[in-house]
Amino acid sequence: MKEKRERDGFLEFASRVHKARLDTRCKVLLWHYAYGFNWLKGQPSFYSQRQICLLTGMSASSYQKARKRLLELGWIIEFKRGRRQTVLVTPRVGRDDDEVVLRFGLPKTDEISLEDAIGSLPDEFTDPFWDEGRAAS
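Above: the chain sequence. Below: its structure as tokens.
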């Protein structure tokens, strides 16, 4: 049996974040927390707000809004160690953000199947041998 590598958990989680219905700044922050998380030992990310803002190009206010939203949706768990120490953050799978779904008019993840989505595409997107000349005749 193949041994599980340290980053395997990160790749699976990153795939879930990729598909999640979240605001862009939330996805960036969540990805950063997941990147800093030690998947082998289960140790939380310890980056400070300042470090994350420098690494992601996010402003402090955007960071605070995204962190608060991720907490509300259950995507992260925080452990506050003390006033002058960084907060430890553990990523986990949370809920989709209904505000993002409504803003962009997206169907909820469970409302549309892959088969329905593929079936609604025009032929030129589903048939690898589709020919524009054939469509014109």
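The chain has eight helices and two strands.
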